[in-house]
UniProtKB/TrEMBL annotation:
Heme binds at C428. It comes from Rhodocollybia butyracea. Its cofactor is heme. Pathway: Secondary metabolite biosynthesis. GO terms for molecular function: heme binding; iron ion binding; monooxygenase activity; oxidoreductase activity, acting on paired donors, with incorporation or reduction of molecular oxygen. Keywords: Heme, Iron, Metal-binding, Monooxygenase, Oxidoreductase. SUPFAM superfamilies: Cytochrome P450 (SSF48264). Belongs to the cytochrome P450 family. It comes from the Eukaryota. This is Cytochrome P450.
Length: 489
């Protein structure tokens, strides 16, 4: 057999890559229309990209192309363009291809699944279990007990509230998925899996993203350490996902265990005539997607709320007064109060508008498209700039300021939650449960604590990653005088 050294492999890969690049180049050249205008600036790593894109879109238009990328990456910056393209055209329901994420097995995860029959089934399962009608009937006890648990933990706070919030939300999502409180080993593994995913998505980090043929290089080839890393990461992801799912099935067989997404879906769908191994597999992987989809997004929103309360004492006091007047001080607010607390509702909307948990959603298109004379080639990476839409000064006056009152006007601007959760056939299926949990946490913490800064107000300093949570900051949760009987302590 012909033996190839590293140089031989390199030459073959370079040749194949050149042919691939020529083919793409010819395809882009032959089209008559142009790509949207390029941003004439290289994005610096420390600057939040969504802010740079929003700035350029004011002069260049709704769609802009990011320079210095191997393939076209187009950013959609206005709601109108997002509605036209993402809501009305199913071609844009696709996700980009991330070779490294796929080597890690993440194509099983809902968020990475390409548009097609399997995705539709995954989303049907999610829409069934996390639908609006099931929020209070199926998930009411979980929402009540987990938000109460957060208030208890904040009351007894031994160490930083930041970790307390994050671990409460993680417990919430694991209880939602599997009906059990996770142990430290489970949480450690689940966080490691998310960390791997984050590493896999880092632009420019992996040669396999630019040279897809490296996908096929076996792990024993010198320099193919990424294959071994990915295979270990995939093993961890699969074993955690399968283990947690089968644990619920065993509990169900024994007639024990708590309500959960897995149990709810299995009980419901197993009575369908078409239910078989494929549907069981789908429920398993959908449940395995919830941790990465639901933890950072929800805790990022709650931490942003806390940061803004520590900075805006008067707004916080007004929110407390509303609860004291409408609900009283002898019980905790609950879902039945949501419609009677307009200022709390406005406050939550403004928290989301101010710092959306996912400022840039990622889509792709499975066929060539054109938008107002601009070309969007097939398989373009589409970044949807949710942040830009929520900071559009023609819609939200003084967008850099935190003003819940903007939603109390007679003709308020659109509810940010219409945009916050994404678009069309990829819109977040966890929106109802996320809204419900965030309402419980906001209303209950405001009713029992005064959130005060530790000296000077904490800075508005957010991480630059996929989910820009506030960077760790100091503040105090001072229990209000009626808090301890209210919390049963
Ligand atoms: C404040 C909290 C949350 C925010 C802001 C948020 C936002 C989003 C956004 C922007 C997307 C992408 C939409 C698009 O591509 O157009 C998404 C996808 C998704 N979210 Fe959420 N989310 C939150 C909480 C949750 C929760 C609690 C769950 C589940 C328990 C969840 C499950 C999912 C799933 C499974 C997807 C992937 C959907 C798909 O690819 O088809 N999310 N979310």
């Amino acid at each position: 057999m012909l033996e190839l050294g590293p140089q031989g492999w390199g030459a073959i890969l370079a040749l194949l890559w050149t042919l691939f690049a020529i083919r793409n180049w010819r395809r882009y050249r032959t089209s008559s229309s142009r790509l949207p205008p390029y941003i004439p600036e290289k994005i610096l790593p420390h600057e939040p990209q969504w802010i740079v894109y929003a700035r350029w879109s004011r002069t260049l238009g709704a769609l802009i192309t990011i320079p210095h990328m191997r393939r076209p990456v187009i950013v959609i910056n206005t709601r109108e363009a997002a509605d036209d393209l993402l809501t009305r055209n199913k071609s844009f329901a696709c996700r980009p291809y991330f070779p490294m994420a796929e080597l890690l097995g993440r194509q099983h995860n809902v968020g990475f699944t390409y548009y097609g029959e399997r995705l539709k089934k995954m989303r049907a399962v999610l829409h069934f279990s996390l639908s609006k009608r099931h929020i209070s009937t199926v998930w009411g006890d979980l929402l009540d007990s987990q938000s109460l648990c957060l208030c208890h933990d904040l009351f007894r706070l031994q160490q930083g509230f930041y970790d307390t919030v994050e671990s409460n939300v993680q417990t919430f999502i694991v209880r939602l998925a599997y009906g059990r409180t996770p142990d430290t080993k489970y949480l450690k593994d689940a966080q490691e899996i998310m960390h791997h995913t984050g590493q896999a998505l880092q632009p420019g980090r992996w040669a396999v993203d630019n040279y897809p043929l490296l996908w096929w290089v076996p792990s024993w080839v010198p320099g193919a350490g990424f294959q071994r890393w990915a295979s270990d990461g995939k093993e961890l992801f699969l074993s955690l996902t399968r283990g947690a799912f089968h644990h619920v099935k065993e509990e169900m067989a024994q007639g024990s265990g708590q309500n959960s997404f897995v149990r709810h879906c299995l009980l419901h769908f197993s009575t369908n005539p078409g239910f078989g191994p494929e549907m069981e597999d789908i429920v398993m992987y959908v449940a395995g997607s919830l941790f990465s989809a639901g933890t950072e997004t929800v805790s990022g929103s709650i931490l942003t709320f806390i940061l803004l309360m520590a900075r805006h004492e008067q707004i916080q006091e007004r929110a407390f007064q509303e609860i004291a007047t409408v609900v009283g001080l002898d019980r905790l607010p609950g879902p039945q109060d949501a419609d009677s607390l307009p200022f709390i509702n406005a406050l939550v909307q403004e928290v989301h508008r101010f710092n959306p948990s996912i400022p840039l959603a990622t889509h792709s298109n499975y066929q060539d498209e054109e938008y107002r004379g601009q070309r969007i080639p097939r398989k373009t990476w589409i970044l949807v700039n949710i942040w830009a839409m929520l900071h559009d000064e023609t819609v939200y006056e003084n967008p850099a300021d935190f003003i819940p009152d903007r939603f109390m006007q007679r003709n308020p601007p659109p509810d940010p939650r219409d945009l916050l959760y994404g678009f069309g056939r990829r819109r977040c299926p966890g929106a109802y449960i996320a809204n419900a949990f965030i309402f419980h946490v906001v209303a209950r913490t405001l009713s029992t604590f005064k959130i005060t800064p530790d000296g000077a107000p904490p800075p508005l300093d957010f991480a630059c990653g996929f989910v820009p949570s506030p960077k760790p900051f100091q503040c105090h949760f001072v229990p209000r005088s009626h808090a301890s009987p209210l919390l049963g302590l």
